[in-house]
Amino acid sequence: MAIVKAYQGKCCYPGLGFGALSCSFFGSSFKSFSVSFCDRVVNIVEIEQGVAMALALITGASSGIGKATAERLAAAGYSLWLTGRRQERLDLLRQQLVDKYSVQVETFCFDIQKATAVDSFIEQVQSRLSGLDILVNNAGLAKGAEKVQEAKLSDWDEMIDTNIKGLLFLTRKIVPAMIKAQRGTIVNLGSAAGRWVYPGGAVYCATKFAVRAISEGLRMDLAGTGIRVCNIEPGMVDTDFSLIRFGDSAKAKAVYAGMKPLSAADIAESILWVIQQPAHINIQELVIFPTAQAAVGQVHRT
């Protein structure tokens, strides 16, 4: 679903060549159409000056994997809706992407933990939800690494409210439009911690186990709708994840000392690969570790 260019009734899709164009014209422009490449159907929501772009919504886009995913998808020609809690970062990212890739980018600043904030966002975009092709549920965090008997309840609340409830709030509002359109891809950012538990991570791991369960259940509930659901489960990724978790830069740096972790761009590349698979292929789960990490808690350091 990169940039698709129209040429006299045909479309050129990078990597696939020419395919049949099916659309309705209104004067010199049109608002929606689909492109068929054998069994692959690419939905396009808007066209300007001969270039059409699919639309992706990315949560937690102001930093880390969310930001890297926005950059990678913009480079591939997607239109973007970006959400986050830091307006200044979203504004800067939007300007950078528009200037560099000439894509359409809209930003929405709100806290996904709050159902009322999600409702307000949906009200803003309700009339355009039918054009949404991709939902990347990236927003998430870890807070603290204390044992259960020593942990702060406020840390538990923040992880549960963001990693589980926030994901559910938004997905519940987006899915009906995708069902009506009979298409869409939902990518949930889980974690290797959603498969393997470690000391001091009981509640964080539980939230990512929940993301895994939600992904499995959602895929079952959506069977027959044409909507795909994927759970991306990274191991160690060098972002501000550890800084947010510990609130201490020295402790955060120590997590990745003596080894080469994954980068946010590595995960973004994997997300792009998942969503660009033909429509009949659903990558259900993708566990991604750096080579130096053999398992959760087993890391080769030099």
Distance between the termini: 41 Å
- Report the CATH C-level class of the largest domain: Alpha Beta
Largest sheet: 7 strands, antiparallel
CATH architecture verdict of the largest domain: 3-Layer(aba) Sandwich
What is the string of SSEs from the N terminus onward? Answer: EEEEEEEEHEHEHEHEHEHHHEEE
DSSP E strands, number = 16
Full CATH superfamily name of the largest domain: NAD(P)-binding Rossmann-like Domain
Total helical segments = 8
Question: What does it look like?
Answer:
By secondary structure, the chain is an alpha/beta fold. It has 2 domains: 1-52, no CATH class; 54-299, NAD(P)-binding Rossmann-like Domain (Rossmann fold), CATH 3.40.50. Helices cover 37% and strands 24% of the residues. It is built from 8 helices and 16 strands. It has helices at residues 64-75, 87-101, 115-125, 153-181, 202-221, 241-246, 249-255, 264-275; strands at 4-7, 10-13, 17-23, 33-37, 40-44, 46-48, 51-53, 55-58, 79-84, 105-109, 134-137, 184-189, 227-234, 285-288, 293-295, 298-299. Strand 9, helix 2 and strand 10 (105-109) form a beta-alpha-beta unit. Helix 1 (64-75) crosses helix 8, helix 3 (115-125) packs parallel to helix 4 (153-181) and helix 4 (153-181) packs parallel to helix 5. The chain is globular and about 50 Å long. Mean pLDDT is 87; it is low at 1-51.
